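Input/output pair, single chain:
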Amino acid sequence: MAARTARPMRAAIFAGAVALTAAACSAPGGTTGAGGPKDSAVVGIAFEPDSLSPLLGYGKDGNSKIFDGLLAFDADMKLKPALAAALPTVSADRLTYTYKLRKGVTFSDGRPFTAADIVFTYRTILDPKTNNASRTELDAVKDVRAVGDDTVVFTLAYPYAPFAERTVLAIAPAHIAGKQDVNTGPFTTRPIGTGPYVLTGWSKGEKLTFTANPHYWGGAPAVKKLTMAVVKDDDVRATRLRAGDLDAAVLPPNLAAGFADGAAKKTYKTYRATTYDYRQVTLPSHNKVAGDPAIRRALDLAVDRQTMVDRILEGAGKPAYGPVPTDSPWFAKGTERRHDLAGARKILDEAGWKPGPDGVRAKNGVRAAFPLWYLSGDKLRQDHALAYASDAKKAGIALTTQAGTWEVIEPRMRTDAVLAGGGSPGDPDFDQYLMLKSSLAGDGFNNMAQYSDPVVDRALEDGRRTDDPAKRRAAYDTIQRQLVKNPGYTFLTHVDHLYVVSDRWETGAGGLTTQVEPHDHGLGSGPWWNIEDWKPKGAPGAAKTAASAGATGAKDSGGTAQ
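Output:
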């Protein structure tokens, strides 16, 4: 996601479906997947990042494998020390955070990690010349400085309540990244970090290969070779998993179901991760139809969210009424929208959008029609887009669904609707600021709909600039209620993530686990979020306790995971 922002993870380059199908008989790099060496694992993911540099946004939410942050999230999404020796000491006014650093940590090239690397990383990200789309997430940082080699002090401009959660951000080595162009240098694709794995190769659109870092401060991983196979097409990913080419893969519900019955159930286990990952439709302000408030409000009522959950997600998710899931303590009760086609038609009638001979409405000679793009190869997005278009048609709004890569879609986002995704566990600021702040309209994948509402803008700042729980709750309650009155996006579903894994791995008595996940799921999410703790079944040390392995509420399936 990914705590993650509303920015979709872009696919830089993908191998064609024909090539991927042909490769289904052999694993990446000659590794034989589930039948391969006991100390190797091959995982199938749908997307890859544009860059592996923390300075450009990679690893900002933790679990990057190549890097570590000052802090990390455990299985229950609680903060724990990583490169820091302990949780930070916070001043009474909540403006100063002091971190003591873990001793004896080195980067994978053997050079020592120090406080200077922390200072370099944060100052570089905050530099306007750095192409980091998430820079505003660190707006609260006024200064960061080193005190010797083992202490770093952050001074904030205002008391930013979730600041400690921001310090899971991956740390880059100043002695390498500081000596090259931050935006285009070789570090962006050949990084060096302190994490449990070292990148050994990256074939864009095909695979990323890693080897275990034998000098990792947390202990050398038992999985010595890790391959992340980039397989864009859901069907191809499932085929490769069934062929034994992959040890694990993320799959949509209909394909994951095929591994939960019969002989497959004895060979594979399915894990279900609850998430903040939503699917939404952007309604761009610069489109004269999609930007009309009556069209937006009508679509918000016309969409049948529960049917999408039942038929598209097969129950693996829940209706979405905004970025905050309905089971989150931050959700504003009463903002649920029922499916009300009659109400949608009434809104359009009163606004002057009258049905034409073909059933499509028009106003002042303008037809209620616009394009809706979705990412090619993504079955869930396609199904959501088609269902949304079908619901819209019943209200008299004609949407033309089209598939494309992000390279095709991005230039059209200003005027065309997009079936997008986003979501970040944790603090509501993580999702909402980048998606809704008017000053970020048109800033890459931030505020894709170019939404602008002064009430929302004020509440976003109010929620960000105080650590008073009551004031923060009031601010985010205001935002969610304003999105009912003035939606710039139609939120559809929150999607649970399903993973199928060969039943030859464990982390302890509780088996493999998942965390609450962001939208961006791939390298750092899934049951492999702690792959550095994986061991082949029966291997010495594999039976450590579930507590030490970091068990969560997610269970292996037969379909009973939570």
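The first helix runs from residue 17 to 22. Confidence is low (pLDDT under 50) at residues 1-32, 542-562.
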